[in-house]
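Section: Multi-chain targets

For targets with more than one molecule, the full set of components is provided together so that the structure can be written out for the assembly as a whole rather than chain by chain. Components appear in the order listed by the source. The example entry contains two components.
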Amino acid sequence: DQQVKQNSPSLSVQEGRISILNCDYTNSMFDYFLWYKKYPAEGPTFLISISSIKDKNEDGRFTVFLNKSAKHLSLHIVPSQPGDSAVYFCAASGNQFYFGTGTSLTVIP
Amino acid sequence: GAGVSQSPSNKVTEKGKDVELRCDPISGHTALYWYRQSLGQGLEFLIYFQGNSAPDKSGLPSDRFSAERTGGSVSTLTIQRTQQEDSAVYLCASSLEPTQGGNSPLHFGNGTRLTVT
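Its structure, encoded as tokens over all components, is:
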């Protein structure tokens, strides 16, 4: 059973606008959440994380929001750039790391 | 510093042959994970090592799959009698032991693309 879900397989956004990627999880015991970015033929690259004691973490153009009551996290990228085009995976940490199925983001110049 | 290194980067093998995939984690990382990604799918957990022991082997899809880690460093994933459904990208990742630095992210290698013909 998928414990981390990304329900949008793809997303297209105009350059300069905000990209919002969503992720839902089922296990309330998860205490650490991460976002990874993956280009073709490369391994996933760590992007940003958030601990369950926080509800927001910001790093430059990237912000992760955590809503524990809704078991939902999101990644905001603003402004979006063409180089952000990639597959984004969310992950949650319990006794191991659980990954979503990914959202393919295309930023249109 | 050096990241996670995986070899080979690509492997084509005939159905029924055995293959070995290698992972060199980041120096000092005690936790090591194997995942695989089949075409159009997400990341599927295979096995986790803490040091040389594997407390969680729950993701290995069959007894044809095995993995070992020696010296708390290099790990090999072995697939015996390969089948076409084993074709996927096999990804290795390492991280600091969580108790050393709080929560630690996984750092991935670029994977081994396995094609079974």
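Chain A has a mean pLDDT of 94.
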